[in-house]
Here is the input.
Amino acid sequence: MKPLEAHEIKGTWGTTLLPILEDDAIDFPRLLEQVTKLAASGISGIYTNGTAGEFYAQSETEFDAINELVAGICEDKQIPFQIGASHMGAQLSLERMKRAARLKPAAIQVILPDWYPLTDDEAIDYLQRMAEAADGIGLVLYNPPHAKRGLAPETYGKLKDAVPQLIGVKTAGGDAKWYEEMREHMRGLSVFVPGHRLASGIAEGANGSYSNIACLNPAGAVRWFDRMTSDPKGAAAEEKRIVAFIEQHIVPFITEQGYSNAAVDKLLTEIGGWADVGTRLRWPYRSILRSEAERLRPIAASIMPELFED
Ligand SMILES: CC(=O)N[C@H]1[C@H]([C@H](O)[C@H](O)CO)O[C@](O)(C(=O)O)C[C@@H]1O
Here is the structure.
């Protein structure tokens, strides 16, 4: 696939979600089904191995098999795909990067090594070597709020200046001040923000989302994204209801019950009911009961009917 440039990375992207069997193995036939459905949803692109794709809980053989499966479907359907070459350690990330580059994705996602926080110089050194291994394919830096080193807009700008192959970032967004700094410092980068705040993010100049709303309903998330251009007021009103649902019914699983973000993304897919992924996570992370999805399904449909029109 032709590598994307920064300005071409935009829209609503959907993640792989690993169906996990009782014995903790990955159920590849069901993964194939999930990715095939995602590919048919009108989504802007598909990516592997973010948090929701459980990159931190895979053997290297599984990592390769997941990426090959996604590359096969996306090449066939001509859908842009990104591979997450992330790992908590630099050496394993570099090996993942080399193998990811061979599959010719549109871009490759990385995190910074995640044990002892890196200095700026170390982060630059890291990204330069990763960029060399990416062999002409652009890098997207993933910096979730729980990363060891949180990056401010100015630092992203510094990294971009030092490593031109860095073309995108995957961030938690921020308040009005954050977006102001983003516009000042993050030129030349595709900026992605959380799914449920995408309409306000787009209005502030962000470019898209690796989206939790696509976990809930990919086709509905795409319709909402299109509405951000055709009917920005309507899309903003829809965002208010989406945020209300997420804050009231989903976030407490993390803040009050201690579940992981990946547990919640799988719950969203189970609520949406468009793919048979299940809510199970890989050991040692705890999974949310499927019955919670059944309880929340009618609530989601009544708060956000537009997402479920199909
Ligand atoms: C709220 C939201 O959209 N969460 C999404 C996050 C954020 O986009 C990212 O952490 C930047 O904050 O990315 C994922 O974890 C991921 O790629 O696996 C999917 C998850 O649904």
Summary: The CA atoms of residues 253 and 259 lie 6 Å apart. Residues 6-308 form a domain with the TIM Barrel fold (CATH 3.20.20.70).
